[in-house]
Specification:
The protein is mainly alpha-helical. About 60% of the residues lie in helices and about 5% in strands. The strands form two sheets. A four-stranded antiparallel β-sheet has the order 1-6-5-4, with helices on one face. It has a two-stranded antiparallel ribbon with strand order 2-3. Strand 4 and strand 5 form a beta hairpin. Helix 1 packs across helix 6 and helix 17 packs across helix 18.
């Protein structure tokens, strides 16, 4: 099997390559001085062969360089693995991936901030009532279910048609959906647009992780790139909390939400929750402009052109050598999402019951009281997202060290089994002051685990199954099973006592958070360690 060998040589230079064989390039790069531009990715320079080696354009080479196809392992001559800075194109790739990850979480964590005011306007149901809790559960779970199913399809399409192409279409889907959701005139319409948002988000995450893992094949650099770009996911959560706070503060001064044929019948055209929903379109603009011009995964492209790319299938994930990692990673991914959706994302529903908040809002009219609770909830969410950001950075640092993957994830699971019941069962029912540090710790321990899977899964599946395997764990485990714990919490917390509703949600969240942490910890004992070499290399494929 041939493998692409990016060689940092200018035309006419000589370099010892392979088995002590001197190779002299016979032609300059296809676009002199423009190496690294995606338009020339993996295109032949000429039909000329040099000693049986086919000359091709090299992505990311940064100058008049070329790629040689040679028997053996991938190697980078002139830019040793793990050394030297990134090229401008690589920096652009990392920046676009970071924005994409941030935008994913921006959209996902938007719902806890807007669900209460949105349902009050669209349904008129009282918080804590059976109807209200029913729609809370539906808005959390049905979009996640749709995202899980279509996200799994997206992972398959990523392996069939390429990482970059699927990324571009996924961004377009959730950008349009995010904008349209602000014009919702019924709860059913809001649910429809949120389903489409989740479809785009679920596909984007899987395609982006596979894309990065293959654009940066050198192990330590790959771990760093995946870890630190995923850390921007928590920045997305922080940004949506800030955006929601700004929308609450300045909604009256913003243009009224009205668009013929789309916004007719809008109850409150200056509702902050509508502006928050629509703000999700802003980060998509640079992604839609730049990402279509970035390079495809070089290894996927090479195999596709050579006709050696294996055909992906879900059944292959349960082959004897992959069955264990598929089942265990899916279960553990589900438990991590269960902690986030079943406990942490319930905080905006818990905040109104805190003594400090009750004291401030009890003398206010309902609209003013709602704004106060939204503001406090946004502040708590900001702290939680800062905790998540710190957790992701810690994970990114630890991921490049020689630490067993089981040990690495347990560093977050073990303290989490203590932090979750304390944060939600004790503190979230009694003190806003102490809730801030408690939610910081809960966010750190839970969100860090999401980055763990982004680093772990690309190493466990061969290239032709990478998108499908990641998608199964992330979408079936995380988005479909894990997010159902929001429905579990909402259902178990239903009560006719409106005043007791926030406290009951906190107690149920404590039980759910503790339970999923315990199950995830027990499952870690069966988590396979990654192979010493990448799976493709180990298999000789």
């Amino acid at each position: 099997m041939t493998a692409a060998v990016p060689v940092g040589l200018t035309a006419g230079s000589r370099m010892l390559l392979g088995r002590s064989r001197a190779v002299k390039l016979a032609a300059p790069c296809a676009i002199p001085g423009q190496c690294g531009l995606p338009a020339s990715l993996a295109q032949p320079l000429s039909p000329t062969e040099v000693g049986g080696l086919h000359l091709m354009h090299a992505p990311f080479c940064g100058g008049r360089h070329a790629t040689l196809l040679e028997e053996g392992k991938d190697m980078l001559v002139g830019h040793p693995p793990g050394r030297g800075g990134l090229t401008p194109v690589q920096w652009t790739v990392c920046a676009m991936a970071a924005i994409g990850f941030a935008f994913d979480i921006y959209e996902i964590l938007m719902l806890p901030l807007i669900v209460r005011p949105a349902l009050l306007e669209l349904t008129g149901a009282a918080p804590g009532s059976a109807e209200f809790q029913m729609w809370v559960g539906r808005l959390f779970y049905i979009p996640a279910f749709a995202g899980g199913i279509f996200g799994l399809l997206g992972g398959y399409l990523t392996d069939r048609f390429g990482r970059r192409r699927v990324l571009t279409f996924s961004i377009l889907i959730y950008a349009v959906s995010a904008f349209c959701s602000g014009f919702s005139t019924s709860v059913e319409m809001l649910l429809f647009w949120r389903c489409l948002v989740f479809v785009g988000v679920c596909v984007e995450f899987v395609a982006a992780v596979a894309w990065l893992a293959e654009l940066f094949p050198e192990p330590s650099r790959r771990e760093s790139v995946l870890g630190y770009t995923q850390a921007f996911s928590s920045l997305g959560g922080l940004l949506v909390a800030i955006a929601n706070g700004l929308c609450v503060a300045y909604a009256a001064d913003l243009p009224a939400i009205s668009l013929p044929g789309l916004g007719e019948g809008v109850g409150d055209p200056h509702a902050p929750w509508r502006y928050t929903l629509m703000s999700g379109v802003l980060p998509a603009i640079p992604l839609l402009v730049v990402r279509p011009f970035l390079p495809e995964s070089p290894e996927w492209q090479r195999r596709k052109l050579a006709g050696t790319l294996g055909r992906p299938s879900i059944g292959a994930l349960f082959a004897p050598d992959l069955r264990r990692v598929t089942i265990v990673s899916t279960l553990m991914f589900a438990m991590a999402y269960g902690a986030a959706f079943g406990a942490i994302q319930q905080v905006p529903q818990i905040v109104p019951g805190l003594p400090e908040v009750r004291e401030v809002t009890q003398s206010l009219a309902p609209p003013q009281a709602a704004l106060v609770t939204q503001h406090v909830a946004a502040n708590v969410t900001k702290v939680q997202e800062v905790g998540g950001l710190v957790g992701r950075v810690i994970l990114a640092y630890l991921a490049v060290l020689a630490i067993r993957r089981r040990t690495l994830i347990r560093l977050f699971q073990v303290p989490g089994m203590i932090a979750m019941p304390v944060a939600f069962g004790l503190i979230a029912t009694s003190s806003l002051t102490w809730l801030y540090p408690a939610i910081f710790v809960a966010g750190l321990l839970t969100v860090a685990q999401f980055s763990f899977w982004g680093n772990y899964l690309p190493r466990m599946y061969p290239l032709h199954l990478r998108g499908t395997g990641e998608s199964f764990a992330a979408n079936i485990g995380g988005r479909l099973i894990g997010t159902s714990f929001a429905w579990v919490t909402a259902t178990l917390a239903a009560t006719p006592d409106r005043g007791y509703a926030p406290t009951k949600i906190a107690l149920v969240a404590a039980a759910v958070g503790f339970s999923v942490y315990v199950v995830g910890f027990l499952a870690s004992f069966w988590l396979p360690e990654p192979p010493a070499a990448d799976l493709d290399e180990a298999r000789g494929t």
